[in-house]
Design brief:
Elements: E1 12-13, E2 28-31, H1 33-36, E3 42-49, E4 59-61, E5 66-72, E6 74-79, E7 82-87, E8 91-94, E9 102-105, E10 112-119, E11 123-128, E12 133-138, E13 141-145
Antiparallel strand pairs: 1-2, 2-3, 3-10, 4-11, 5-8, 5-10, 6-7, 6-9, 11-12, 12-13
Length: 156
């Protein structure tokens, strides 16, 4: 298969974040274009953000590189050192192990889209910059904990 038919990919909404944290991803949809094309060595997703939606909680990856290209509209890249407005065609790169949390927010009044391409490491940790949380991803399964590995409170 070479061509991936976007219209045939089931959009994924919601979040795997625990508790009330998942509510912060309202207005975010993803199309798993890499999976639809049979790609296994890296992930490729189109993220669709409604106005005022955000891509994720601010995070950084221990073992996985991440690359983003805005394909439609305007988003704001939020990092430790500030905010950068990004437009169609703009790109951002997040090398593994760089401790500078990032996420994207759609502050415009129109839908925005961006392509995310990232490594699929056999073992990964993502650290969340603004809260005491990390996720460990191993063999396709994710587990959220506090940064020290202890359980998260039920009311998070």
């Amino acid at each position: 298969m070479a061509k991936v038919e976007l219209s045939q990919i089931k959009p994924r909404t919601g979040s795997t974040y625990p508790g009330r944290l998942a509510d912060q991803m309202n207005g975010r949809t993803s199309l798993r274009v890499g999976d639809a094309g049979g790609i296994t060595q890296f992930g490729a997703n189109i993220i669709i953000l409604a106005p005022n939606a955000k891509s994720s909680l601010r995070h950084w990856h221990l073992n996985e590189d991440e690359f983003v290209m805005v394909t439609q509209g305007t988003v704001t890249l939020v990092m430790d050192d500030g905010e950068t407005e990004m437009h169609t065609g703009d790109c951002a790169a997040f090398p593994a192990g760089v401790q500078n949390g990032h996420c994207f927010v759609n502050k415009s009044t129109s839908e925005a889209r961006f392509l995310v391409v990232g490594t699929r490491a056999p073992y990964e940790e993502a650290i969340y910059s603004d809260i005491d949380m990390k996720v460990v991803l191993e063999k396709g399964q994710g587990k959220f904990t506090r940064r020290d590995g202890t359980e998260l409170p039920d009311d998070i």
